[in-house]
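Take the subject:
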Amino acid sequence: MDKDKNCSVAPPPQQHADGGGKKRVCYYYDPRISYVDYGEKHEMVPHRVAMTHGLVKSYGLLDLMDRLRVAPATKEDLLLAHSEDYLNLLRDLTPAAYDNDEATRKRAAEHRLGSVPDEGGSGCLISDNPVIEDLWDYCLRYAGGSLAAARALASGRYEIAINWSGGMHHACEDKASGFCYVNDIVVAIKALLVGRFERVLYVDIDAHHGDGVENAFLKESRVMTVSFHQYDGKKFFPRTGDVKDVGATEAMYRTLNVPLDPGTGDVRYHKLFQPIMERVMDVFRPDAVVLQCGADSLAGDRIAGLGLSVRGHGKCVRFLCGYDLPLLLLGGGGYTINHVASCWCYETAVAIGKEIPDDIPHHEYDKYYQSQGYKLHYHEADRSNGKAQTKHMAEVKQRVMEHLDQLSDLMAAAPCTQPADKEPSHAIVIDGDALAVDRLLRGEDPVERLYRRCGEVDLTEFLMDLGEKELMKRRKVDLD
């Protein structure tokens, strides 16, 4: 016990109400992700990331960040989060193979890919995770963005890293779930742990429970997961995330769930979010934070029923920015795509520390914002249910705070594993300069340089790319 008494413990991080001032921010955008099509009737529209990028660019925010070079993940990277058998299936699975081979469909269904029975017991077939064109490439690209952003933080060069195409928090080790094929968040957190960070805090403000991330770290004492989500325990996907779920074994109480009622707007949300997160920071004392900014918790979402405004959602980002800890910002859900783009653009500005006007500038996607009056901060009616909701919130807050008290006692009794003034002994040195676009050699291939312009893709280039794909398909048919 004498050793424990002499072990240096880091003081709790301090919160700055103004968001902590200007930050060194890097930003990841791969235009190829916006070409992905889940299907005509599917709620997930990856093109929302291109809309976000267009809005970020129109506000002049790109010039205030370093842009990370496009770097798709590899299969070896994804093995941090998934089984090899599952990844091999994702790599080999195509719509043609799925449509024409019964054995392939059966194997896909075992991993919740394609048309499968609804786990909610409705008896219907659902296709949340369809077998789409270029599926493997899509997985590598959005996971690669989160991995590159995590490495940028681990390099020590940046204080905030952003990948709005990431945040796929439902995917599990051996299956797809909730529109998510691979879990880029788990990959990123594990990269942070082998980088320079001893403890990583994961916070999820998506409308849906961050079940895939929680399950991956249930027994990991160096990771704490905190999820604020809509919950009824019956129908609302994924039907998990009860306040009583707190982790397991040596990681007990490092899992926190904050279930919310539909219609939980800004005021009620932050009466929970801020005191809970202040206590989490005081007790867990993380070295880095990952924030999943799922925008389906916004008012007016097509699927979920929470009621946050763009400012209310962004307030979570501003609050965590105020701790001056390395912060990874990821996307997630969000199915009213103009609202999603408004939110993530605003949160990019929050991360940078810049105020931007409410009037949306003229740009290639501005027609999508007509329904919100071309304003960044649109308004929706309050759908809260008053006193009943307030009583439930008080009960949830009390339970969560009790869990944090339990965690505080456990951590006080446990031996300190790392002196406060040293990096982990396993830390890997990462060159931050090599990650950024603007630090690449000027003599690189001009086609590659054009591709790395990250988002300056006009309609002509988009149609040319589609035409090239169609031509390749026809050639393949002719050869066959």
Remarks:
- The CA atoms of residues 255 and 444 lie 46 Å apart.
- The mean pLDDT is 88.
